[in-house]
Amino acid sequence: MILVLWSVYGRFFGVYGSVYSFLYVFCFLRLGVYFLLFCGWGSNSKYSLLGAIVLCLRQFLTKCLWIFFGLFFVYIILSYDFSIFFFYQFGFWFLFIRFLFFIGWVYIILSESNRTPFDFSEGESELVSGFNVEYGGGVFSLIFICEYGMIIFLCFFSVLLFFGRSSFFLKFIFLCFCFVWIRCCFPRYRYDFLMNRAWKIILPLSLGFVTLSTVVFFLVF
């Protein structure tokens, strides 16, 4: 799945000009929940399966938030083409006009990538290692290669959406550094706190942005 997602990457730190590239990425990102569920079920262990089920509940929440955040971007640029983001951010980053939106986005990508402070896949109530407790060797390595590949892709995706094309590589490295820095500085969040913040703060915020962008779209066009 990670290799398929990276297929949108093009030369010169750009992206391919497919008119459906944005929709393509969001569709494949949604498949991660099946990966978690099948890993937990395939372990033939009730502890792994329980860890996978709890993770799927959290993934369901983040998927809903991703859809609303994605709709906001689509309404703003009126296209599914990644190259349009570079065109609109020439000389002016979306970060400046959507800072609160960016904070919610960081919250979502940290949860989506299973990183601290939301690394519940590695510590479901300190249940050894969550859904991957029965895996070892090459399979265990593949699971975490996939996880780190997702982190790198989400950093690339975030730079694309909020920071434009100028100095792309430096901003990409900075976001990767922020992932490591957050892991070193913050403890693991409580699961109920994550669900409360997501349902009561991030979800209303995303709905508000989508509603506002929809109203602006109909007033202008």
Write a concise synopsis of the structure shown.
This protein has 221 residues and is an all-alpha fold. It is built from nine helices and no strands.
Supply database-style keywords.
single chain; 221 residues; mainly alpha; 68% helix; 0% strand; globular
Overall spatial form: globular
Mean pLDDT: 78
Question: How far is the first residue's CA from the last residue's CA?
Answer: 37 Å
Beta fraction of the residues?
A: under 5%
- Tell me the structural class: mainly alpha
Q: How many discrete domains?
A: 1
Assembly classification = single chain
Number of strands: 0
Over all CA atoms, what is the radius of gyration? Answer: 18 Å
Largest sheet: none
Helix content: 55-70%
What is the chain-wise order of helices and strands? HHHHHHHHH
* Number of distinct helices: 9
Uncertain residue segments: 11-15
Can you walk me through this structure?
With 221 residues, this protein is mainly alpha-helical. It is built from 9 helices and no strands. Helix 3 runs antiparallel to helix 4 (46-77) and helix 4 (46-77) runs parallel beside helix 9 (191-220). The longest helix has 32 residues, at 46-77.
